[in-house]
Amino acid sequence: MGFFSRLFGSKTPAHPPRDVAAMAAHLAQPAVQIIAGLPVRSGEPVHSWFLGEPDLAPGADWPTREGRRIDHILTLDLAEAQALVPVDWLPASGSLAVFYDQKKGPYGKASQRDGWRTLYRPERATSRSPDSRRLELKAFRSYVDAEGLRADALDLNDEEWDIYCGLEMAQTGVEYCHQFVGHAATIQGPALEQECEAESTGIKIEDAGKSDWRLLLQVSTDESIDFMFGDAGNVYYMIRERDARTARFDDVWLIGDCF
Q1: DSSP secondary structure string for all residues of 242-258
Q2: For 114-162, how does the pLDDT look when each residue is reduced to its tens digit (9 = 90+)?
Q3: What is the Cα–Cα distance from 58 to 13, expressed in whole angstroms?
Q4: Given CA atoms 220, 200, 213, 208 in this order, what sign does their dihedral have?
Q5: How many Å apart are CA 38 and CA 40, to the nearest integer?
């Protein structure tokens, strides 16, 4: 740009942004947004819910830590979730009861291993708790976290990069949502797969490969269900694909991330 153009502010007209969603299609994975709905009415059959009590398989015990029960965060009906987004490495039916120790707030260290738990029930679970909240499900497309992408990976300009960063929020309406499978939306950009591999095996994180860890659930800070992690953060429940294929949910690992 010449001297007079710079002096008087003449600018070359900006090109309209390209179709960023189409350009980033190869970076997207289907996922399910989990939304806290209305309280469950007495006698109403609900198979996916937040809070309240879990409906565990016969013989299964409510997980405890230091002599107290840890919090039941949600129960997810896999048939309902799979109807929206089929996942071939997870059971097609049954229920997952998800627990987390909100009092101590574990964030994924091996020494905190008893601070979270995910229990699988092959049969469909049903809410029988009057203080539970209905859980609503909505399919959306999740994208590789912008923190994990180099800015030149898609050759985007600044305006297009902003569009990429907002692709998920345009669908979910929130910056971070509760989520089943897909790409995790991290805050500080932790390498979730490597952290899980390192903490679960005791090796150094710089020596940890991605292995076959997959996002099972993302639970975000949400005042409507009184869930808070750190400074408005998220927790990610991760599972090895080989364990998921054989319904081994005892080895689910958790990583916490916050501002």
Answers
A1: HHHHTT--TT-EEEEE-
A2: 999 999 999 999 998 888 999 999 999 999 987 667 656 788 888 998 9
A3: 68
A4: positive
A5: 6
Between the alpha carbon of residue 167 and those of residues 19, 37, 66, 185, 235, the distances in Å are 11, 24, 42, 12, 21
- CA–CA gap between residue 195 and residue 108 (Å, rounded): 8
d(CA 230, CA 256): 8
What confidence tens digit (pLDDT) does each residue in 19-49 have? 999 999 998 999 999 999 999 887 788 999 9
pLDDT (tens digit per residue) in 71-93? 999 999 999 999 999 999 999 99
- Residue 53 near residue 128, CB atoms below 8 Å: yes
**Cβ neighbours of residue 22 closer than 8 Å, sequence gap 6 or more:** none
C-alpha–C-alpha distance, residues 173 and 226, integer Å? 19
DSSP for residue 227: B
**What pTM does this model have?**
0.91
Which of the two residues, 40 and 50, has the higher pLDDT score? 50
| DSSP letter string, 47-106 | SSEESS---PPTT----EETTEEPEEEEEEEHHHHHHHS--TTS-SS-EEEEEE-TTT--
d(CA 236, CA 4): 54
Domains of the chain, earliest start first:
15-257 (2.30.320.10)
CB 93: neighbour CB atoms within 10 A? Answer: 13
Of the candidates 131, 108, 123, 137, which has an alpha carbon nearest to the alpha carbon of residue 200?
Answer: 108
pLDDT at 189: 81
**Could you give the C-alpha distances from 108 to 112, 198, 234, in angstroms and in order?**
7, 10, 12
